[in-house]
Design goal:
By secondary structure, the protein is α+β, with helices and mostly antiparallel strands. Helices cover 52% and strands 12% of the residues. The strands form three sheets. It has a four-stranded antiparallel β-sheet with strand order 4-5-3-6. Strands 7-8-9 form a three-stranded antiparallel β-sheet. Strands 1-2 form a two-stranded antiparallel sheet.
Length: 344
């Protein structure tokens, strides 16, 4: 609906309810600002209740209680690639549905910085790594406790800067946060992290680009490539992030020169983008065992059922082809696995 149509309908309805001309003008000014930013017009908590389909009392209670207790979340652990575990804080179904509404109707209408490659449509792992292919040096920095480091005041500011009222911005921010920070497990957290980090992405890029240093960020994983003094760059990034209460995990800082294997978010980028050597070796080994011993005997050996095993193997192969679609070895493996799936 065009704003002129919205305005006409609003004036008619508001006049009927007895609002004064100044009140109507104030509401329309508020609404026009939100409309210009392509986000939904929401006047207050009651209006948000109607839009989301949840009672006003529930929205208010979930917003307040989530800042003091974990009653609206469930916690569980998932394994990380390095063998450690990560704690996930997943909102319970009703709150999750509200967060999805905020994500789909408000947040996804906004555009994160061009340097953010995760959690954004039409961007991903491949878009992150391609900028760092065939460079003299690649450096990777990891931000410690990324989501928990993003505090509720920064989240509220996102909604307030869009034009929502202070009261409504606080409600929206609280609905997306747990005990004062972004929870890892809420559907809104990834997109909000990119929006909060937008200004820092720009500052880092303004430092890097004049020095021909390429910069991308994939969630909490920052990558830099080019020919530069790594100690000066690390000092700059560390000081910049410390001012915003972010910390670099020094144990995960990696500097990779041209004469050694360079990888970005687990992908080799030296001369061409491809699977890590160890991942390729595992796929090659699995295909060898299938050919030598037969699928059934091999699966009994690894302790997996047919469908589950083949689907996982195909997923590994498809990921390699996503990175390099002309990889003839993986193309051959894919044909064999698809044939096995059809047969079994």
């Amino acid at each position: 609906m065009e704003f002129s149509q919205y305005s006409s309908k609003f004036i008619a309805a508001a006049t009927k309810k007895g609002l004064s001309k100044s009140e109507i003008s104030k509401c329309l000014s508020y609404a026009e600002n939100l409309k210009s930013k392509n986000v939904p017009i929401i006047y207050n908590l009651t209006h948000l209740s109607r839009l989301t389909g949840f009672e006003r009392k529930y929205l208010s209670q979930a917003a307040v209680v989530s800042q003091h207790t974990d009653n609206y979340y469930r916690y569980y652990m998932i394994p990380k690639k390095n063998g450690e575990t990560r704690e996930i804080k997943e909102p319970l179904p009703n709150l999750k549905e509200i967060q999805y509404w905020i994500l789909n109707n408000i947040l996804e209408n906004l555009t994160p910085s061009s340097f953010a490659k995760a959690y954004t449509k039409n961007r991903g792992l491949k878009q992150n790594v391609r900028f760092h292919k065939d460079r003299d040096m690649v450096m990777s920095l990891d931000i410690s406790d990324f989501f928990p480091s993003i505090k509720i005041d920064s989240v509220i500011k996102i909604f307030y800067n869009l034009g929502y009222s202070q009261e409504l911005s606080k409600i929206l921010g609280k609905l997306c946060c747990l005990k004062g920070s972004l929870p890892q497990g809420a559907p809104t957290s990834p997109f909000l992290s990119n929006l909060v980090f937008y200004r820092l992405d720009q500052k880092i890029a303004n430092y890097c680009l004049p020095k021909d240093i390429r910069y991308t960020r994939y969630a909490d994983d920052m990558t830099f490539s080019g020919n530069f003094d790594e100690s000066k760059l690390v000092d700059f990034i560390t000081n910049l992030l410390n001012k915003e209460e972010f910390k670099i995990n020094d144990s995960k800082t990696r500097v990779m020169k041209r004469n050694e294997r360079q990888w970005v978010t687990g992908v080799v980028v030296n001369s061409k983008i491809q699977l890590d050597r160890s991942q390729r070796r595992k796929i090659r080994q699995e295909m060898y065992f299938i050919d030598k011993f037969g699928l059934k005997s091999h699966m009994e050996h690894v302790g997996m059922n047919q469908k589950n095993y083949l689907e996982k193997l195909l997923g590994k192969i498809n990921f390699g082809l996503y990175l390099n679609s002309v990889d003839t070895e993986l193309q051959g493996y894919k044909e064999k696995v698809l044939q096995l799936i059809r047969e079994y």
